[in-house]
Amino acid sequence: MAFKTKINGQSEDSLSPLTDRLAQETYHNSPTMSDKKNASQDPLACEEGPGICAIILTIMSLFLIVVSLPLSLFCVVKVVQEYERAVIFRLGRLLTGGARGPGVFFIIPCVDIYEKIDMRSQTFEIPPQEILTKDSVTVFVNAIMY
What we know:
The chain is of the alpha+beta class. It is about 30% helix and about 30% strand. It has 4 helices and 9 strands. The protein has helices spanning about 15-30, 35-40, 50-65, 70-75; strands spanning about 5, 10, 75-80, 85-90, 95, 105, 110-120, 125-130, 140-145. The protein has a 3-stranded antiparallel sheet, with no helix packed on it. The chain has a two-stranded antiparallel ribbon with strand order 1-2. Mean pLDDT is about 75; it is low at about 1-5 and about 35-40.
């Protein structure tokens, strides 16, 4: 075990007094388990849930769906094929749970927007190109991009 000697508050292998001071501050200010418990009780913590306006709009939209129930099923029920996924945005924010599908899912017409994502691989044909090499030989190159 090697011991480090300190001369004037600095260790032998330190580069400058500033690096020693930063190392001491990070050592003394490192969070402990008790600090993590108090961090969740911080009154200034950012809350990721929907706001009161979003909740009111969602409740009003659900009420309109229930009132016009037989007709609203045409707007509420969406089907996604096996090779597709649906990403749902509620008032511009991504809905928890990620992509939906394949199968049947429900959206709230005035509040939700969904985008269908095609998961199949697509091919694009790149037109053939004629290339001149360093030794003045012409080469024809064509490709397919997946």
